[in-house]
Structures are given as C-alpha cells and as structure tokens.
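User: I'm preparing a small set of examples for a lab meeting where we compare how different chains pack in three dimensions. I only have the primary sequence for this one, and I'd like the structure in token form so I can line it up with the others. Please keep the answer compact; I'll paste it straight into my notes.
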Amino acid sequence: MDNNESAQDTFMSIVTSDTRSKIINDELTDIFFLVNFGIICGVISFFGIIANIINVIIFYRQGFKDTVNISFFTLAVSDLLSLIGLLWLSLCFFAPFRFADLPFMPTDVQYLTGGWPHVIFARITGWVTAFVTVERCLCIAMPLKVKNIITRSRVGIVICVIVFFVVGSAAPAYYTSRFDLVYFPKLNKTLVGLVFTSDRGQVEEVSFAINSVFCPLGSFTAVVISTVVLVVKLNEKTKWRQNSVADNTKNASIAIKEQKVIKMVVGISTIFIVSFTPAAICFSAMALEPEFRVTGFLRQHQQRRHVRLVYAGGHQRKPQHLRLLQDEH
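Assistant: Understood. Below is the structure token output for the 329-residue chain.
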C-alpha cells in the first residue's frame, strides 16, 4: 500500500512539473497530431501506396537485366513498405480509431509497429537512392569500366548490406522499448501500451551518433553531393556530344537512353533532397543541441508518455521506471 501511494504521489508531482514546462498545451498538441498524422499523412500514404504498387509491377515486368532496374525495384518496394507503416501510424492517430474501445493504446502501439518500420524503410530508400546516384556518376565518369564494376551480384550485395546496416541501427529502439500493461489516468483504463527499459538513456547515448546522425544524414549528404556531380558531369557530356561529329546513329541512341536514365535519377534525387531537408535540419539540431532530442527538455510528447510509465502495472517494475524518469528530469 505504501509503495502504491508513493508511486501515485510521484506520478502527480511529475504531472504538475511537466504541465509547467510545456511549450504548448495538450489540446493544441492533439490537434496537431490529428491533422498532421491522422489526416494529411494518411491521405498522402494511401495514394503513395497505390503509386508504388504500380512501380513495383512495372520494374518487375521490365526484368533485372539492367542493374539500375534492381535499384529502382528496391526503391519502390522500400518506399511501399515505408508508406504502409506510415498509413498504420496515421490510422493510430486518427481520432475515431484512437478513442475506440480497443485493448491497446493506438498511439503507443504505433511506435514499434508503424513509426519505426516507417523510419527503417525510409532510411533504406535514402541509402539506395544514394547508391543509385553514385552508380550513375560512375557511368559518366568511367563509361567503359562501369559494367565491370557495377554487376548485378554486386548491386544485390550492396542492397543487402544497406538493409542489414539500417535494420541493425534501429535495433536499440526495439531493445529499449516493449509493450506492457499501462494505466492511463485520463481513460481510467489499463491497456497495452509502450514502456521503456531502465537503461534506455544509456543505450541512446551510445546509439544516437549512428542511429540519429550518421544513418539519416549520411545518405542525405551522399545524395546531395552525387546529384551535384551528376548534373555537372551530365552537362559536360552533353556539350561534348553536341560538339562531336564522330557520333553515329547507334551511339546517339545509346546516349539518349542513358541521358533519360540519368535525368530520371536526378529527378528522384531532387525529390528526395527536397522532402528530406526538414528532417535533416531536425537531425542536425538534435546533434548540436541535446535538449532538442526526445530525451531533452523539448520532448513534450515523450514526457507525457514517460509519466505514464510511473503508473504502469506491477510494482516490481516501478523502481526501474522511476529511476529512468528521475535520470531524465
């Protein structure tokens, strides 16, 4: 009884201090999540899934004789899986589903079943995009040697390494997070929710450099540099071919086909750069300012989630969650 009362007192004191430190109130936060995640992301994800299913079918029917088709097929598949995760995340934040009479808390469950799968496959898409742009750079820089350097087997190995690396970098998130029965005071219910291990802070300190800096920003930087080089080299090649009188019809048709592929790659890379720039700014801010991370002061949504852990069922776990919370505050 004393343990339960102590846990409740700690819970209420943390809720009070958390309320004072909030930058925006809960109602405005809920509206933001509903509009951004529950509606906008859901609509975009739905149409994106349809478009990527079409892309997967097209690239599969074209075959994998050309190495670039292997990369494009992988891009379509990873983007499709990323959007499926995002659609599930959006559904979990959609008010009618979120407040339905379910045995679990959707906004908690989506963290491991929708949020992180979306991030994993989005990062795979980023690294494969970087690989494709580097491959096209080699096609322009070393047109006679590139077919011996970039083979189908090597492309397959590179893609497998990318998948293994990205999935491995996300492993700490699944190690420190799990589902358990959690009491939700506002609902007065005990549901399946998200809880964190007591060593989450220490694990994230180690994994942050790889998982939140190198993995997302590395692919972004590689795509930006490769795209700039690709555009410059493409313009140089175009001017050279225009001034050359030795091109025959066959070489000219090959050059036109190659230019179409390169322009397609540049288009994909440009879309990736524009879309990922806001995320790159956020990741850079987290690297420069620790308080901007989810374990820092500016973590309003995560704060409320951690507060719930104090009241999670089973007082064998309470000391660990209390210690985690005290370390973070």
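A couple of notes for your slides: DSSP finds eleven helices and two strands in the chain. Strands lie at 177-184, 189-196.

User: Perfect, thanks.
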